[in-house]
Design goal:
alpha+beta; three-stranded antiparallel beta sheet; 9 helices
Amino acid sequence: MAARRLPVYDSRVVADLSNLLAKVSPDQLRPIAEVALRFIVTHEASVEVGELAAQMNSRPDQIRPVVHGLSSAFWECAKARLSDELFLQAMTQVSTRPEINQLLLECYLAKKEDIMQSTSAFGMALPEYQHLDWRIDVELGRRSVYQDANFTFMMRLDVDNGEESSIQLQADYANMKNLQKELESAVAEAKTAHSMRFQRYIVNAAAACLVLGLVGQRAEGIAEVCGRATARRRG
């Protein structure tokens, strides 16, 4: 199986979540996590944020960053297709309390399929490496040539693009060396500062989608309040 890379959360997400998760009880956290998960799927959270703030004797502007932070954390875990164990490891960036991280995992698993459908709309749907089987066929000679050795590499590449499939490949030694060179070059390029900067841009763009959805809901609420106030003045 391909190794999974843990998502690295934005520093603002870590700051918004770590303070709350250090002191909140599991019973208090559950409704917050459920609202954050629904927000990923429906992009509607203004009413729920207000209700949560009232229940916790807090203000909506204090609860909203937490909901957004959890949404972003869940979103990144879904994109990375993390196992349960890796999800718990990722959550240690924002919480060192095992009972809190376990609760977040339970809430996440309950909505995982809906989240995966939402994240797929923003993905590039590239095949994901799963496994590689290979063998070498050696031709030691032919009737006309008795001291000729030809090497042929036979490979079966298993990938996952929503469903598992296999790709059959065949290459000689020269092409395999060229493939090795290109793969090593790609790995080295992925570690450069330029590539890491683009990876951060992509992560921030996904978070921005969540922010814009929340801002849109807030703008609709403000417009509705202004409309009612204008109607009362005219009356």
